[in-house]
Amino acid sequence: MNDEKYFLLSDQSVPTNRGYYSSDMSLTSPEVKFKRVQKFERKLLVWIAISTNGISSSFFAKQRQAFNEKTYLEECIIKRLVPFIDTYHDKDKTLVWPGLASSHYSNIVTSYLSQNGIQFVDRYMNPQNCPQSRPIETLWSILTNMVYDQGWEAKNIDHLKQRIQEKIKEIDLNVVQSMFSDIRKQLRKIADHGPYHACS
């Protein structure tokens, strides 16, 4: 299972990063009152693959636009996913479950996977908006909480990358394995009753 996520220098969804309160505005410093906000915040794309055997090496990219199929194929599939499969799995018994991004199902990516004997979930069989069926979504949530713990904010993109790398190393393999423990049941529910049955 592989997917990517964008991380910002600070996460406003973490309660400690949401705001500042004061009973006396005259005591509030100008840096707080007049905090500048960029229209398009700098962000860092992180790609990983996970399985019952662990987490692959990560791909990081400073992003201002969408992730394209050429980068996905070269940096994620060829350089990271294939070696991860070769090291930890039998290629004939492996099923790659990508996200639904258009780059994941582009012709060059699906052709490469097919030519190299790597099976993957077809797009029409891949449920959308159903994170309960995809353990990697749980992993992203855990990693986000670890990165932005106690209101942590990055000074720059390199600082953010370093923090994410540290936190990925801290993720317990037992947690990753437990996320896959009931995946067959969830997928059976989806197959038998549709994707929204597993989401309830």
TrEMBL record:
InterPro entries reported for this sequence: RNaseH_sf
GO molecular function, one term: nucleic acid binding
Protein name: Transposase
Species of the source: Rotaria magnacalcarata
